[in-house]
Amino acid sequence: MKKHEVHILKKTAGFGGMKEELAKEVEHFLDKKVNEGYGIVNISFTYYEASELIAFITICR
User: Cα-atom radius of gyration of the chain, to the nearest Å?
Assistant: First the structure.
């Protein structure tokens, strides 16, 4: 049976490039996890009250 994990990364509004900054963080996080043997199941982005961009990442081993 595969072990699934959900991770949450977020960026708060107030500076330019919120989307780009979070995308870079997600990319670095996933590179690290893939190198550790995890598989990517799902990645989704959503805004919370128009002030935060949140990434929900599901991985499995």
Answer: 13
Determine the Cα angle at 17 with ends 22 and 8, to 5°: 15
Determine contact, residues 52/40, Cβ cutoff 8 Å: no
Number of residues that make up the chain:
61
* CA separation for the pair 59, 48 (Å, rounded): 22
pLDDT digit string, tens, across residues 10-48: 998 766 678 889 999 999 999 999 999 999 999 999 988
Give the pTM. 0.85
| Alpha helices (runs of H) in 2-41, residue ranges in sequence order | 18-35
Nearest alpha-carbon partner for 29 in 20, 38, 19, 17? 38
